[in-house]
Amino acid sequence: MSKQDKFDTTGGAYRGDEALESLFRHADVRPRPPADLEHEVRGTLHGEWRAMTARIRRRRIAAWGLAASVVLAVALVLLPQRSAELPAQVLASVARIDGELLLRGIDDPRNATVQFTGKSLFAGQVLITDDHSRAGLTWHNGESIRLDQRTELALYSDGMLELRNGTVYVDSQGAVGKGFVIRTPAGDVRHIGTQYLADVNKGTLTVSVREGRVKVVDEVAAQGQQLTLDQRGQVGRNEIESYGPLWSWTELVAPQITLDGMTALAFVEWAARQTGREVSFADDQTRELAAGTILRGTVQLEPARALELILQTSDLEHVIVNGEIQVSTRPRS
Fold it and tell me: What count of other Cβ atoms lies within 10 Å of the Cβ of residue 217?
């Protein structure tokens, strides 16, 4: 019988329906099989059904087991790595930024940089200043580190930095505990209670010492000395001043100072240290006046400019003559 014979498109019914109905009317009821045979067939079918469902369950369990083993294997791969990861070590905080400070990872193959917007700096970061930016940091032990323009400084650990290019200034006053070493292409720089500049330009290292002593490889530079060392080991020495253009940029990113409760004497000494100068007083009475004058406020200006403005609010005045800040009592009008 063809498909066309089965279905009547006009009536929507099978033509063979009447024949089937007649056949069923004349059919006898099928006799039931013997009870023992029916029981045997049912038992056989039930056994087959149980065997089939058991195989399905085993396949599901096997699949679940495989999935669980995959998850476990992934966990075993990931967990040792995760447990081996240590919290990032905070090495410094940013005290001041003049312009933009850029960051990238030490081992980042892309050399991708991002703008720094936080407060803390961590091991594994590289700090970068461009042609228009500088930055001042406070190391975890209290030392001041300042980056000049076009500088790249890598933070490896609490005891190791790497100056790849540019200039940094270090002031170790008030530091607690062990200091750090600055690695450069020409050798490592170690300092002892000092203020100094380290500059790397095309692989040549120049260290300028304002105070204290600095050791570079086997060479030592003392206060007022400048040491130059290239990658071939050639050494040069010069005498330098502790103030002036060489150092002036460091004042732009000097740490902020809170004056509340500070005496004028302590403030003048702070400004002198930041500018590399000595302090002198006109007489003992002027020094006593400075020691008894209590200041208030917060200074966010360059030290030389702050000194000028703050002393105007007191009975003291000053002039700067070369490497000396000369303080006197303001004449009464």
Answer: 16
Residue partners of 70: CB distance under 8 A and separation at least 6: none
**Cα angle value 269/271/277 (rounded, 5°):** 80
Q: Which among 192, 208, 282, 216 is positioned nearest to 243, based on CA atoms?
A: 208
* Residue 171 and residue 117 in one domain: yes
Helix (H) or strand (E) run with residue 228 in it: strand 225-229
**pTM, rounded to two decimals:** 0.72
From first CA to last CA, the distance across the chain in angstroms is 131
- For residues 242 and 279, membership in a common domain is answered with no
Which amino acid is present at 209? V
Last residue in a domain, options 246, 273, 296? 246
Q: What is the pLDDT of residue 20?
A: 42
Look up the domain containing 168 and give its range.
90-246
Judgement on whether residues 235 and 280 belong to the same structural domain of the protein: no
What's the pLDDT tens digit per position in 244-291?
A: 999 999 999 998 888 999 999 999 999 999 999 999 999 999 999 999
Kindly state whether residue 251 falls inside one of the protein's structural domains. no
Q: How many CB atoms lie within 10 A of CB 206?
A: 20
CATH number at residue 234: 2.60.120.1440
Structure token pair of residue 271: 């400004």
The span from the CA of 10 to the CA of 317, in Å, is 117
List, in sequence order, every residue forming a beta bridge with 326; answer none if it has no partner.
280, 319
Kindly state whether residue 18 falls inside one of the protein's structural domains: yes
Q: Are residues 115 and 41 in the same domain?
A: no
Written as six digits, the tokens of 118 are 């936080």
Beta bridge partners of 201: 204
Number of domains in the chain: 3
Task: Examine residue 151 and state whether it is found in any structural domain, yes or no.
Answer: yes
pLDDT digits (tens, 9 = 90+) for 14-53: 444 554 454 444 444 445 555 544 444 455 445 545 555 5
